[in-house]
Amino acid sequence: MAAFVPARPGQVVVEAGCGAGAGLLCLANRVHHLTGIGLEQDSATACLAAHNFSLNARDCLRVRTTTLPALPDDPLLSGPGLRRIDHAFANPPWHGHDSSASGHMQRDLARRLPESGLAGWVRVLTAQLRHHGTLTLALPASLLAGGVSAMETARLGGIRVFPFWPHAGQAARIVLVQGRANTRAGSEMLPGLVLHEADGRFTPAARAVLEDGAALPA
Asked: Of 66, 88, 172, 196, which is most buried with the most CB atoms under 10 A?
């Protein structure tokens, strides 16, 4: 997902549901001089993210505990009219609020959306974006239609869909969906990426993205 966020040096990014901070760390490693804030609802996991940012000497990154669509009190996040975020991204929970709960609290928080659903995440993150800022979501293919619909309702345009094929010839299971604020551009289905060889190893193209910081084919 970090390879798909079109951030540039000096910009401000936010990750919703940042977990232990891997997404922000990957993006900060790819794009220098970023300022980033992670939003995480589990306080213990938020503490782990803060620890990881410190261990990696990423003073430009910080984490705040909140449950979307509520936003924490932070100078990077604001009400209408004061937008400071250039790019937002998230790997939201993939199950609805009415799905079966997990007995493990942290697992349940990670897998089930709040009552506001995916649309609530899209709405609140879009409201923070600067002119032509982007929102990028990692979704299962089964939520593609819902993700695109939520972006269109939030008035994001230029929607780009990037599929990941587990193996050549297999249906995509995971997609990246990206919308841009204040644009009327049409949608695009991008070439996508085959992740694994027949023997289970990552393909050379996937390794280049994961290990060498290559861009996704677009």
From this structure: 88
